[in-house]
Design a protein that fits this description.
The chain has about 300 residues and is mainly beta. It has a single domain, classed as TolB, C-terminal domain (Neuraminidase, 6 Propeller), CATH 2.120.10. It has strands at about 5-10, 15-20, 30-35, 50-55, 60-65, 70-75, 80-85, 100, 105-110, 120, 125-130, 135-140, 150-155, 160-165, 170-175, 185-195, 200-205, 215, 225-230, 235-240, 250-255, 260-265, 270-275, 285-290. It has a four-stranded antiparallel β-sheet with strand order 1-24-23-22, with no helix packed on it. A hairpin with a 5-residue loop joins strand 18 (about 215) and strand 19. The protein starts with 5 loop residues before the first strand and ends in a 7-residue tail after the last strand.
Length: about 300
């Protein structure tokens, strides 16, 4: 168990900041700021913005988005942020995929991708899930040529989400089907080689909710970290499971509805969106020293 301290980031517009993502160089954090609290059912009733905040001096750059955002991912060189979402509720989910320059706010778009797109370690390819009636293939796409290939396929009913390891060799995928008649959902986390497509299961566990979450890698690539519901509909716990085998373990922190998490590249911080400990409006929280020292 961890006794790592938790603190809420001191940000303006409390309750409207969510989806945090540390930059690979560790100097900045990107997040979305809405004009309404994040739990509002009408995400686009007012404008929202992509915020790039310096961790050194707290200075912010704020760029208009007007997207319902599912996910943020930095480019490997920390120069731009990929935004996954949609511009309006009637549009397809990939209608809002864009890349925004972190310094100027200039926007470009990525072709033929879908939800859960992740940059490769070298920044030259994307890996993403393509939700089709026939299944849910994992696609590798060359950014320069647009050429794609399927490396693995998952049952769409399992509602997968994925993330890529820091060295670019592995995808961690969580499968999270809807609850069965007994009120439970049997979930699994597995890793898939980005080269061969071969997979192996790291762990399985039961969950009594239909919430979808996304796994993340620790900065050193040794663990897959994931939020897991503990009690009722509000209490969550962060867990980690080793890449090289072993039992999953609790990380010793209970939080409220933490769907998105982001480990800092120095391995000592992790940021997440949460309503905190008292179900107040959501904000961005940071946990320090969340992994044990390597023996």
């Amino acid at each position: 168990m961890s006794d790592a301290p938790i603190r809420k980031m001191n940000l303006p517009f409390e309750g409207r900041n969510y989806c945090p993502e540390f930059s690979p160089d560790g100097k900045k954090i990107a997040f979305v700021r809405g004009s309404l609290p994040e739990r509002s059912t009408n995400y686009l009733k007012g404008p929202n913005f992509l915020c790039i905040r310096s961790l050194e001096d707290g200075q912010e750059k704020v760029f208009p988005l007007n997207h319902h955002v599912f996910d943020l991912r930095w480019s490997q060189d920390s120069s731009s942020v990929m935004v996954s979402g949609r511009r309006g509720r009637g549009e397809k989910p990939d209608a809002g995929r864009l890349v925004m320059d972190a310094n100027t706010g200039e926007i470009s778009r990525i072709k033929r991708s879908s939800l859960s797109a992740k940059w490769s370690a070298g920044g030259k390819a994307l890996f993403y899930l393509q939700y089709l009636d026939s299944g849910c293939p994992i696609i590798s796409q060359n950014i320069e040529t647009g050429k794609t290939k399927e490396i693995h396929r998952i049952d769409r009913k399992n509602r997968p989400n994925l993330t890529i390891s820091p060295d670019g060799k592995w995808l961690a995928v969580i499968e999270q089907p809807m609850k069965n008649p007994s009120g439970k959902s049997e979930r699994s986390i597995k890793v898939i080689s980005t080269e061969s497509g071969e997979s192996r299961v790291l762990c399985r566990f039961e969950d009594d909710s239909n919430h979808m979450v996304t796994p993340r890698w620790s900065a050193d690539g040794r663990f897959v970290i994931y939020p897991r519901l503990q009690r009722g509909d509000e209490d969550w716990e962060l867990w980690r499971v080793p890449l090289n085998g072993g039992q999953p373990k609790q990380m010793g922190i209970s939080i409220t509805r933490a769907y998105t998490i982001s480990p800092h590249p120095d391995g000592r911080l992790i940021a997440f969106t949460s309503q905190g400990l008292n179900q107040r409006p959501p904000g961005i929280w940071v946990m320090e020293n969340f992994l044990p020292d390597e023996k």
